[in-house]
Amino acid sequence: MKNLILSAVIFGATLSMTTAKAADYVIDTDKAHAFIQFKIKHLGYSWLLGRFNTFKGEFSFDEKKPSAAKISVKIDPASIDSNHAERDKHLRGKDFLNVKKYPEASFVSKSFKQDGDGKAILIGDFTLHGVTKELVIDVQHIGHGDDPWGGYRRGFEGKTSFALKDFGIDYNLGPASKDVELFLSVEGIRK
Amino acid sequence: MSQQLIWRNTEKRWGWISIIIHWLSALTVISLFTLGLWMVDLTYYDDWYRTAPEIHKSTGICLLLLTVVYLVWRTRNGKPASLSTHSAIEIKAARLAHVLIYVLLLLIILSGYLISTADGREIVVFSVFEIPATIYGIDQQEDIAGVVHLVLAISLMAVVALHAAGALKHHFIDKDLTLKRMLGIHKLD
Q1: How far is Cα A57 from Cα B36, in angstroms, rounded to an integer?
Q2: Using a CB-CB distance cutoff of 8 angstroms, which residues of chain B are in contact with residue A89?
């Protein structure tokens, strides 16, 4: 048992040594270990959940210098998926995302401030529906380490919310449905 | 002396089955087009936001059934000969318009079906019966089918306008029986 703990400690130490350098990561959208989910109240009575299926991005994160962390993500707004084709068609149309006119959404970070306990505040420019606005994302570091296939991975989750009308989407969904909440799960594979 | 009701088509006239289905279809097609254009601009809090698309879809499926039944019936029943006053080019143009109307109608209903069933959901027809999804899950299926649905519907309206213009030309300029035959108000020969 002692040996097991000891080897775990040594393993952990080597792990942190190998990761204690600047590293660039590609977000693993290829095998779908990253998610952009949204939820918005339906009439104020329940949550409607959906996600964007197509996006890609990269981040860099150095444990010794977390303030230098960066992330940029490009999202295909036409990949919106709320599990209902007619609704998705409506969401892609002029009343909402107008994906023909605005075929790309994106997030580009400007600052990253670690708070301890793996928490951090990420601030960046979010572009949606042709409007770019600053967005503050609450970040939680989830974990990192080797994967079983010879790679090295690191993951975070993020939470934020914004008002649809701030991004020029003013379709009336009712007083309880003005804000959208985002849940982001991002896993990167080190380059 | 009252005229005898003739249901089937004869060599010289349209039977009442054809006449009723023709005008019922015409009314339905124009209503569906208007309803379709109107309903896509409804707002979330409009009373018709949910019901208008349901009526549109249900009516579309009913129109499909009516059209298929009618086409089968007509191939067995035949149709009246063209009037002798019609020129060869008029007959050809009219036939082309008729074929186009049928083809466009069927493709419009098919594309509409592919919008609503793009995620595997069925179409519930007036809460009475369901049409299951068959082809679904194609990338951007509802968007592509949506564009096709709209473009073909506008095309159908253009052909319908030509068809109606032809009928009016025969009635008011040629003063022949074309339109009266379709209304069933000409004298029995």
Answers
A1: 40
A2: 115, 142-143, 146
Instruction: Tell me how far apart the alpha carbons of residues A189 and A169 are, in angstroms, rounded to a whole number.
Output: 35
**DSSP-derived secondary structure letter, B188:** P
Helix extents (H) in chain B: 16-39, 48-77, 88-116, 141-168, 178-183
Write down the residue that tokens 């703990």 correspond to: A5
A114-170 tens-digit pLDDT: 998 899 999 999 999 999 999 999 999 999 999 999 999 999 999 999 999 999 999
Does A89 contact B45 at a Cβ distance shorter than 8 Å? no
Chain A nearest-CA distance from B71, in A, is 31
For residue B57, give Cα distances in angstroms to A90, B60, B112, B147: 16, 5, 8, 16
Stated as kind and residue range, the H or E segment containing A56 is strand A55-60
DSSP alpha helices (H): ranges in A42-159? 85-92
The Cα–Cα gap between B24 and A134 comes to: 57
Contact A78 B140 (CB under 8 A): yes
Dihedral sign (CA A127, A31, A141, A12): negative
Distance CA A102, CA A128 (A): 8
ipTM over 0.95: no
Chain A residues lying within 8 Å of B44, measured CB to CB: 171-174
* 3-class secondary-structure state, position A50: strand
What tens digit of pLDDT does each residue of A158-191 get? 999 999 999 999 999 999 999 999 999 999 999 9
Element (H, E) at A133: strand A131-146
Q: In angstroms, what separates the C-alpha of B60 from chain A's closest C-alpha?
A: 16
pTM of the shown model: 0.84
Q: What type of residue is A143?
A: G
